[in-house]
Request: fold
Amino acid sequence: MWEFFARSLEASTIFTLAALGELINQRSGILNVGIEGVMLFGATLGFIAAQLSESYLLGFVVAIAIGGLLGLMHGFFSVTLGADQVVVGMGIWILGFGLTTYIGNPYTGPLGMDRIPTISGLSPFFYLGLVLVLVTWFVLSKTSLGLRIRSVGENPAVAEVSGISVARTRYLCVMVGGMLGGFGGAVYSLFYNPVWNYNFLMGWGFIALALVFFSTWNPWILLGGSLLFGTLWQLSLNPQLVLPGVMSRYLWRTVPFVTTIIVLLIMASKWFRIRWGAAKPEALGVPYLKE
Amino acid sequence: MRLGRYELKLEKRLTVSGWEAASISILAILFALALFSIIFVLAGINPLLAYREILSYAFANPFGLPPTINRFIFLLLCSFAFIIPFRAGLWNIGMAGQFYVGALAAFGVLYAFGGKVSRSADLPAEIVIPLMLLGAAVGGGVLGGIAGFLRGKLNINEIVVTMMLNFIAYWLVALMIKEGGAFMNPGGRGESFELPASVHAPLVSNVPFTLLLALGFAIYLYFLFARTKIGYQIRAHGLSPAAAQYAGVSTVKISILVFVVGGALAGMAGYHYFAAVPGVYKIARNYGYFGDLAFYGIICGLISLANPLAAIPVALLFAGLTVGGRFVQGQLSIGFGVDYALLGVLMITLVAFQFFYRYRLVLAKGPELEETVDVGVFR
Amino acid sequence: MLLEQVRHGETVLEARGITKRFPGVVANDGIHFEIRAGEIHAILGENGAGKTTLMNILFGLYQPDEGEIWIGGQQVKFRSPLDAIDLGIGMVHQNRRLVSAHSALENIILGHPKAGKILDLKRAEAEIGELCERYGFSVDLKAKVWQLAEGEKQVVEILKALYRGAKILILDEPTSALAPPETKKLLSSIQAMTQDELAIVPFITHKLPIVLAVSDRVTVLRQGKVTARLQTEGATEQSLAKEMVGREVIFRLERVKAEKGQPILQVEDLSAASDKGYLALKGVSFSICEGEIFGIAGISGNGQHELAEVLAGLRKAEAGTVWLDGTDITRASALERWRRGMGYVPAERVDVGSIGDFSLVENVTMNYYFDEDYCRGGVVRYRGIRRLTKEIVSEYSVATTGPDSKAKTLSGGNLQKLILGRVLSRKPRLLIANLPTQGLDVGATEFVRNKLIEAKKQKAGILLLSEDLDEILSLSDWVAPIYEGELMGIIPGEEARRDIVGALMAGSVTGGAAR
Reply:
């Protein structure tokens, strides 16, 4: 049972990292529907780098770097060129999905390195995730930088005449967001499940996206949602640990996805809608081009 | 930038003419192929040679051409599954799931008629085949309809929902064809039972009849968007939901309609691949691979600017590239997954080229007046 | 900062020969004026006189093609609004430049160099509270901006400029969104500011009495040129209007007496929620007969928008009943309402009333695709609609290159004419016109108003929603001021007096509600 609990927290951490990155993105008004692609890149390149160099550190650095680069690419298309952000996000997802399948294929198989040690039985990344949630919350709500980010996401034109560079703020956010996404991917492939397999990250990024909507852009609610989904994910993989003999294992695999849809359904209720509408960054997904 | 007496500069444009849009799309494809040749160069192969191999296998080889055509039918149907909702401003990325469920439903019909009992079962083809096709359409349509309903009625993000449904459908197929599922092949190789020979889809000069179906849809959809009331409502909703509602268009009805029809077409692609393509006639063990290919429908729809007729040549090209790509992968010993890599490169190139729908590079100055047509896809 | 210490009457800002050209127009043509410390200097001009361009130049959004700006005796160049802010210019826009999800306080300190890395909201609040006290502003600094009334939002913008150290305050149409009592408060605050040697520069289109009441000097613009510079003392409303328009102006429209006809629209206890979820329209009842114009006067955000949308079938009624020609249509879809003879001209003509990427023909189709004369067997008869479009274009003199050009190429006035023409071509029984002339120039405004009168003569019932009290008073057979989602009274057009309606619009119940 402890094992199940610990593994659930590990899974939660991946959701937390990826969704936190997306939350920062969205707070600045940029929608990246392609987190799955960022995570795939981080996981694959991090895996390859770690395996070739036999260094976890290098693996994570590469993953974070490629995540940041993809974030910047998203920024270039959507901030500088003012492209449709959904198209760009889809592009990043399909790019990641297509290219990592090709790049990673020769490395199919286990990582073959000693596992990263745990801290009092729990994943060290879990603690890191908690700290990052705290930091994100503090920066967004208590600092000048946070106010700038939120303003840019709500009303970029106002931010601009108040002396804030919309482009620079958004670039910063998409880069940090991408780095967290890449990092989350690497936590998957280097720690949670250190085996490379074709299209292994089935839907984590998209669930993380739904989590951000669910969180009403609040890092603490996001953390709660991640814990729920991490547990569900773990349950769907090992139902026999908790509920032996209930349902086929294939049906169990659909549980996180069905739950996502159910959560979205609950959020469509009026009570939630109103709060959601109030919290949603007003300029989310809207290209802003200076006159 | 100055070039001699001329000045090269970016100019914002309000409208794009049809020819300009088409040439941007063609340039995007060419650019992606050029970019993609890096993969061949890295593998130490002359890209021109590789492309020649790919295309000659896909289009001029007696073994390559039939799979290309079958792939083409599949891609065209998946493209429509994307295009129809996209015209209404909605993103269907659930063609994979709709494809799976379509295949399941078609085999469900067959199962109901006792098709599992024996490969030589003598079933009434004139009843079973239309019902399988219909079942596939209904299955895909229902899955699409869920996303359309949730989007139209409750304003739930259709990208997330269709993606979730993809995974759900993926595991449902596994449930049905593996480990004692109802459709499991008695041989136990993780695939479905085989289609009895009596209900193999009719072939028109060795090509499944679904080709005619797909081409017919292309023409019909073109007409639908250009001339009909429904088409007008869909287009208006796609350009401005608020204005469409003002004009009396119901967001709920349009969202459900486009997703049901789009899903139905992707469902038919499921019938096509697993019940009409000669030599397959079962839900293959690697059905996930076909689901992944279904995402080519997104790119195909985007590059053809959501024009159903323009989707024909684009789908044909991509069919050839993926089939030929798989072939040269073995032939020239390049890594696995060339078709996946191409998918990624095409998509990101397309994203980059979106820029040119809003800006153009102009040499020198001077007022230009031109006839323009509606593309209105990338706003 | 060039304006650290200024003496009363010293010239703080000087525009010398400002010229700005756009393709086809000279928006500003050699404009010259000077602003002095401690004065209220109004810039007066019609829509299209070049006020907006001039304002954008003074705020650093545009660069002038010719001419110089001098501040505190030095020539300056603004590359962006930031330069203007740093040099002591504060701008209060008519389209509020505030982040509506943030608190008033957050808006004021946004981007302020003093804000610090970690926000010290307490200190900022104390400092801003001081400013409020000094100039007599009252606003809840902790409230979110979207919860504030229009007048309070304007105060927040003024505070933001002052907190940034503005010495010259440019106010864009400062009273256009205010009810009379709010206007009074604002004017007294402005006068308090001039005591501290601030220069106040209001840009004004209408509301000439206000100009006369508070300003020291006036500069009048017409067609991009300065046509008059005068002391307010001695000027009259007529003389200012003449300078503005260039001819004698008669503020009057033909008033057509309504023949009492059948009731078309009956509304009883109608309530509706806003997008934010609170009740914005609270139990409204009225009826409109054939050939009547029913004018709803109100300041934006008092529920009139929700009223128009509920009647058009675009928003759910939370309670109440609506009858059109005696049929209960409370639950009817928008499409059914169109079919039953309701026509709606929305306030958002670009986002709702038209589709920019559609051609004019396709835009006209918006109101015809469901019409049996223009759609048979599910196929739209675009040829017929094309003919219709040409008729509308010529009858309403829509300036366009042709029926196939896109709607986004039309100017605001021409777009409005197209929308109005399209809706009126259906000969609606009931026309809902929400802010039909907002933002239009004088010619287009007159045109639209005359078309409304024409429709009235043809026995249409018209619901007119407007923020322009003059428009309401000159056109309506019945005037109903709306405040916080309630009708404050329904007054016959001949009896409606400006002051009473104005007071009712501001929520004053003692103003003499008549029924």
